[in-house]
Amino acid sequence: MITKMFLFANAAAAAPANLPWPMPSDFTSGTNTVTVDSGNFMFDYSSVPSDMFADAVSRHAKRTFTHIGVDTLPASIQLTGLDISVVDADESHPQLETDESYTLTVPADGTNAKLHAQTIYGAMHGLESFSQLVMFNYTSEGYEVANAPWTLTDSPRFQHRGLMVDTARHYETIPALLEIIDSLTYAKVNVLHWHMVDGSSFPMQFKTYPKLWDAAYSSQERYLQSDIAQVVDYAHKRGVRVMVEFDVPGHASSWCKGYPEICPSPTCQTPLNVANNKTFEVIGAMLKECTGGKTSQKGQPSGLFPDNFLHLGGDEVNTGCWSQTEAVADWLKDQNMTADQGYAYFAKRASQIAISNGRRPVQWSEVFDHFKDQLDKRTIVHIWKSVTNVTEVVALGYNVLLNVGYDAQSWYLDNLNVKWDAVYSQEPCAGVPDSLCDKILGGHGEMWGETVDASDLEQTVWPRQAAIAERLWSPREVNDPAEALQRIENFRCLLNERGIRAAPVNNANARSSPPGPGSCYNQR
């Protein structure tokens, strides 16, 4: 018997327990259990000419078959291999436009499973789904796939599915960042938004302005450019883009320690000094070091951060320091600008620097709220405030990234009292006409770092980030928290099995300990 799963409201109420997270776009399942010959299992990717993909297959093989020394018991029907084909094995950095679709079939007749994708990044998602279908049976002491035969025809609803990590409020170690990147791939999250610096600290090395990282918390809490290259390369090999953020002109008082001239005054430090051209020289040099200032011969972005997007912040700008600092106030007067017009000038000039370096600028809600359609149409509006009208933004032709911060359904993961089901209930296109929904590129969970460092990062992110991941990957109709509860509990246990410190699903507050003795699968 084969069950066809058309994904409309509540259709997945009887979804198989081993269904991968996030729920695939479309799938069929059956009622057979197929034994997996783990001792002789062959991942056949011989037609995929990519060393990077070969490494990915090796990682997923270890993730699929986790027990050492297991001999598969004889069975009449065994699954002995996964045949993998990819149309385009290009290893270039993934970008927003990268095709992440795949098709995975797991038969029940003893023939090999098959995985087909347009790109190696789609194939990596297929490998992850396959690893979640394979379960270990402790009674038979062997691996098996339940509910076979399977056919998954899968692709993301939104191309941009991210997690922001803040390394300014607390320094995050390189190993912590690498482990978070690994965890993202388990839920098919494809963007690490790296909020690199803020008013609290400036941990990144810049060679043209080497005193910027004088504002690191300590000499040991810094990122060499080689460290950053390691993180970006690690993410690239796992199909994760890294979008860096330098929040200007506000949230930048740390810049003043090394270069006080780019701030209004020693006692009133932000926004950065709009009246001093040195401010824009520093920003320009920084962005050039990040981007290489050009694209490669293939037309792909290059540099330290090869992603097409570069986040410039722009939020929570109080122009009071400009008005209170005589030199800045005089400059604004000479330019016939109000302080708010100076803010617009700064935001647009920073945006043009990013564009001149081959990047699309991303800026927070306030930039749009102040300046509306004055912004360059290449600007991506990152909406975190519920007062920002998403329909207005997309109707004016702008792309959007979404995570509403201060409400009962917040995707701000530092809001510890917001539970997973409230996060899951947020529909990215709510209130937006269907004809404009495709202007929303996706969204993020935002892990602001005031109370987060390497000691509690993972259990604050997970499992609520999984709820965000499914709403951004799966069809709009997959939206019922009651249906998703058992599946997200299973996924949380999978994360724990893979060494990710995901907290219990139903905590009253994120990252709380389990309530008492009990199974991982029943933490209620």
Give a structural overview:
With 524 residues, the protein is an alpha/beta fold. The chain starts with a strand and ends in a 27-residue tail after the last helix. α10 links the parallel β16 and β17. Residues 1-13 have low confidence and may be disordered. The chain is elongated and about 85 Å long. The chain is built from 15 helices and 19 strands. α6 (277-291) packs parallel to α9 (339-356). It folds into 2 domains: 3-154, Chitobiase, domain 2, CATH 3.30.379.10; 160-478, TIM Barrel (Alpha-Beta Barrel). The longest helix has 18 residues, at 339-356. The strands form 3 sheets. The chain has an 8-stranded parallel β-sheet.
Average residue pLDDT: 93
Distance between the ends = 34 Å
Main-sheet strand order equals 14-13-12-19-18-17-16-15
Total individual domains: 2
Counting DSSP H or I runs of 4 or more residues, the number of helices is 15
CATH superfamily of the largest domain: Glycosidases
CATH architecture descriptor name of the largest domain = Alpha-Beta Barrel
Give the low-confidence spans: 1-13
Beta-strand content estimate: 15-25%
Give the C-level CATH assignment of the largest domain. Alpha Beta
User: What is the number of E strands?
Assistant: 19
Which fold name is given in CATH as the topology of the largest domain? TIM Barrel
Shape: elongated
Q: What is the radius of gyration computed over CA atoms, rounded to a whole number of angstroms?
A: 24 Å
What class do helices, strands and sheet pairing give? alpha/beta
